[in-house]
TrEMBL record:
It is found in: Nucleus. This is U2 small nuclear ribonucleoprotein A'. Gene3D superfamilies: Ribonuclease Inhibitor. GO terms for molecular function: U2 snRNA binding. GO terms for cellular component: post-mRNA release spliceosomal complex; U2 snRNP. GO terms for biological process: mRNA splicing, via spliceosome.
Amino acid sequence: MRLTADLLFQAPTYVNAIKDRELLLRSHRIPLIENLGITKDLNDVIDLSDNDIRIIGNFPKMTRLKGLLLSQNRISNIQANISELLPNLESLILTANSLSQLADLDPLAGFSKLEHLSLVDNPVTARDHYRSYIIWRIPSLRVLDFEKIKDSERKFAAQLFGTVSAPTELASQIMKTKTATSKVDLGRGASASIVKLTDEDKAKLRESLKNATSLAEIDRIEKALRTGVL
């Protein structure tokens, strides 16, 4: 099921136990984050758990949002500028997804207020130096995988990886190893590869948009231009 305007208008909102306004979008088999501008940034937390989302991205700028629940999806990719779109995010729950490379998590380094992160039951947690790397890349973190980060862990991570401006050889090697492509499930058995758009691709899409003859085609082209992937 797509994350349509109708679904967003019908989705329940409530004040949770810590007095945050939460939008509930669990268990709809949503394949792609879209249309969240309709919510007018009125929520502190959005729960998108138990869907079919493959990419964390395509958000409008949401300055109020501080909690994002994305457990039990199929996430394997994170939009590079996600921290610019959600600048005040404090908690990100990604339990039971498909993130596999440490460098695939580098976009999270831009979150200056992120304190709580869960990556439990992702393949990436089996990588060498996983916990140390995440602690090093996201200095604001206080709790990783529901375990409080110790000062000794921060010191060890700094010894292992250096600084962002002067990373060690190990850090540099890890940052170069990213997932090249990911398969996106489009629902109902269809799938497609994520292809990052070049400037030439975008120009061609803009030209195609002028000649589009259906709402579906217009929506597809506008979405590609907005997300930067095809």
